[in-house]
Design goal:
This protein has six helices and six strands; from the N terminus they run E-H-E-H-E-H-H-H-E-H-E-E. With about 210 residues, it is of the alpha/beta class. It has one domain: 3-Layer(aba) Sandwich (Rossmann fold). The protein has a six-stranded mixed sheet, sandwiched between helices. Helix 1 packs parallel to helix 2 and helix 3 crosses helix 4.
């Protein structure tokens, strides 16, 4: 059996401004740093076998805090970074509506052929993320009851993985909610994945079940 915990990084700087931060290496906010510490405390009480993360600092810093408590070395995987939003990077939703309204409407439909202007297409994003995720699955060690393999990544990355697991069409991927710091658990047995937990932030209020 392989039991993976997919974790979205905590809150980032200027999160309240609803900007497109895909490939932009934006740091955690002050609250985000606190949430990362809480996550590290939570994971330090778990049996974690390995820690993987995106190369972007919001994920890498989060993973490093937890790995230090666990006395593990993080595995930095560039392919797990968020989608490259091209010239939309750093812009607010309203700014994009004002400048590229039709393209914004196309983005809302989440068709596989959609490409961010001067950035990645959804098909390219899916290919790089799922190839690397499947590689991690094939090469990672087996887990016993209660053990975890942790991946710290981004909202879009995790939504994509869950959509592929659940057979959800790309146009409906935004129906999957991923809060900052959210926990998701998938168990694989004989190649078959079962979603055991989704979008849980229990550790932030100390209400997690053992």
């Amino acid at each position: 059996m392989k039991r993976l915990m997919l974790i979205r990084h905590p809150e980032v700087l200027d999160a309240e401004k609803l900007r497109f931060f895909g490939a932009t290496d934006v740091p955690l906010s002050q609250l985000g740093y606190k949430q990362a510490e809480q996550l590290a405390d939570f994971l330090s009480q778990r049996r974690v076998k390995a820690v993987y993360c995106s190369q972007l600092q919001r994920a890498k810093h989060t993973a490093q805090l937890a790995a230090d408590r666990l006395e593990l070395t993080i595995n930095i995987i560039p392919e797990l970074q968020e989608i490259n939003c091209g010239r939309w990077e750093g812009n607010s939703y309203q700014e994009i509506v004002n400048d590229d309204e039709q393209l914004y409407q196309d983005w809302l439909k989440m068709e596989p052929g959609f490409r961010f202007p001067e950035g990645e297409s959804l098909a390219e994003f899916n290919k790089r993320v799922m190839q690397e995720y499947n590689r991690i699955l094939s090469t990672s060690i087996e887990t016993q009851a209660g053990e975890l393999i942790v991946i710290v990544a981004h909202g879009g990355v995790i939504k994509l993985i869950l959509a592929n697991l659940l057979g959800i069409k790309w146009g409906q991927v935004n129906c999957i909610k991923q809060d900052f710091g959210a926990l998701n658990i998938i168990e694989y047995q004989d190649g078959y994945g079962v979603l055991r937990l989704m979008n849980d932030t229990c550790y932030l209020d100390g209400k997690c079940r053992d």
